[in-house]
Design brief:
Layout (H helix, E strand, L loop, with lengths): L2 E13 L10 E16 L12 E5 L4 E5 L1 H8 L14 H12 L11 H15 L4 E7 L9 H15 L18 H19 L5 H8 L2 E5 L2 E5 L6 E6 L6 H14 L1 H23 L5 H25 L4 H12 L4 E4 L6 E5 L6 H13 L3 E6 L6 E4 L1
Parallel strand pairs: 3-5
Antiparallel strand pairs: 1-2, 1-12, 2-5, 2-6, 3-4, 6-7, 8-10, 8-11, 9-10
Helix pairs in contact: 1-2, 2-3, 3-4, 3-5, 4-5, 4-6, 5-6, 7-8, 8-9
Bound molecules: adenosine-5'-triphosphate (ATP), (R)-mevalonate (MEV) and magnesium ion.
Magnesium ion binds next to α4.
EC number: 2.7.1.36
Enzyme class: transferase
Protein name: Mevalonate kinase
Length: about 375
């Protein structure tokens, strides 16, 4: 039986998180840290030997879960599979799926995995019904830290399930990593969005879209514009290691918006302008050192303004403020990225910044217990491979 592998990248949001859920423009880029999925469908079990199982192994976490096809059918009713038409998980179905997740006895310390496993069950059973198979997942990304682990998880799962369905017609005899065509990417992206809805509650779709398509995007109300940076943008990512949950943070911003509708509408409008300006500057050519520096200073100013507005939305955190203070000592600008509340912070590393200064900042941040990594912004999106 064929086996497929899929890898989908995480992302950083350069501007516009949260406001994008309320209709503002945002700018995001893929980073070269991936969620990896391998998937195979099992051959039918000979009569009298049970009905096999659907297995999910989370390699990095040392956890494995199994459901028998008969238990899935008993729990969810007759399977209706339409791989070419993404379906939302209704509130009734979510409850039925939650019961199937609960009986797996997930360790209490890892209970945050439940929403991811629920998204897995929805995507799998909607595309392959109750067929027996095995899915193995590993990730380069820190989970639940603002780098889009949930979206890359959903994109890689949706892609691998669709690749072994008849909704995607890639030539399975081709070797190596393959990109999907535009229509197929869109189908994967729409399924991934349905999974992301289970994890985020009310996602904008920016995270799954940048994970599927890669590079850099400007995004508003489900519409994407591909953009390209005129010069390399280097960012330092600092993981505060403070755990948080995107669904709760998104809900918190919506509650603040319903308490202060006019003030928050003004905040979202300001973020919209910042993201549009940022997108223009990122794409504008810089021909010499002076214009490279001027361009980077403008990007820094917009990042600082966006961070101020994220504080207004109530999604900063003491650990984020510590990173801002440390980097400011070195005249560097930072903002939270993703949902905030802890998680990761972005710091622009200007082209002319010496590596000695970068090393000093990293050493100071790491001595406070944070974890730093340097990334080049923009990169490959989803890819699949048949083996
Ligand atoms: N590799 C994985 N294996 C299992 N579950 C995962 C994996 N990656 C993500 N998840 C699910 O996604 C949840 C984290 O999603 P969440 O949206 O809170 O954080 P994030 O996507 O990393 O950050 P952000 O949404 O701010 O970019 C986890 O609690 C888990 O349910
Ligand atoms: C906080 C948020 O804007 C970005 C999370 O990476 C949520 C979303 O857009 O789905
Ligand atoms: Mg997420």
């Amino acid at each position: 039986m064929a086996e497929v592998r899929a890898r989908a990248p995480g992302k950083i949001i350069l501007s516009g998180e949260h406001a994008v859920v309320h209709g503002s423009t945002a700018v995001a880029a893929a980073i070269d840290l991936f969620t990896h999925v391998s998937f195979r469908l099992d051959p039918p079990v000979p009569p009298g030997n049970g009905d096999g199982s659907l297995g999910l192994e989370l390699k990095d976490l040392g956890l494995a879960f199994f459901w028998s096809p008969s238990r899935l059918k008993e729990g969810l009713g007759d399977a209706v599979t339409v791989p070419s038409t993404p379906v939302s998980c209704s509130p009734e179905r979510i409850k039925l799926i939650a019961a199937l997740v609960e009986e797996q006895d997930i360790p209490e310390a890892k209970i945050w995995l439940s929403s991811g496993i629920a998204a897995f069950i929805h995507l799998y059973t909607s595309i392959h019904g109750y067929k027996a198979g095995k899915v193995v997942i590993s990730s380069d990304l820190p989970l639940g830290s603002g780098l889009g682990s949930s979206a890359s998880f959903c994109v890689a799962l949706a892609a691998s399930f669709l690749a072994l369905s008849d909704a995607i017609t890639v030539d399975k005899s081709q070797g190596g990593w393959l990109r999907l065509c535009e229509n197929e990417l869109q189908l994967v992206n729409r399924w991934a969005f349905e999974g992301e809805k289970i994890i985020h509650g009310k996602p904008s779709g920016i995270d799954n879209t940048v994970s599927a398509f890669g590079n850099m995007i400007q995004f508003r109300l489900g519409e994407l514009i591909h953009i390209e940076s005129s010069a390399p943008l280097r960012m330092l990512i600092t993981n505060t290691k403070v755990g948080r949950n995107t669904k709760a943070l998104v809900a918190g911003v919506s509650e603040r918006a319903s308490r202060h509708p006019d003030a928050m509408a003004a905040v979202f409008t300001a973020v919209n302008s910042i993201s549009k300006e940022l997108s223009t500057i990122i794409q504008s050519p810089a021909l010499d050192d002076i214009s490279v520096t001027a361009r980077e200073e403008k990007i820094e100013e917009l990042m600082e303004m966006n961070q101020g507005l994220l504080q207004c939305m109530g999604v900063s955190h003491a650990s984020i403020e510590t990173v801002l203070r440390v980097t400011m000592k070195y005249k560097l600008t930072s903002k939270l990225t993703g949902a905030g509340g802890g998680g990761c912070v972005l710091t622009l590393l200007p082209t002319l910044l010496s590596s000695a200064i970068t090393d000093k900042v990293v050493a100071e941040l790491e001595s406070s217990g944070f974890q730093c990594l340097k990334v080049e912004v923009g990169g490959e999106g989803l890819q699949i491979c048949f083996s």
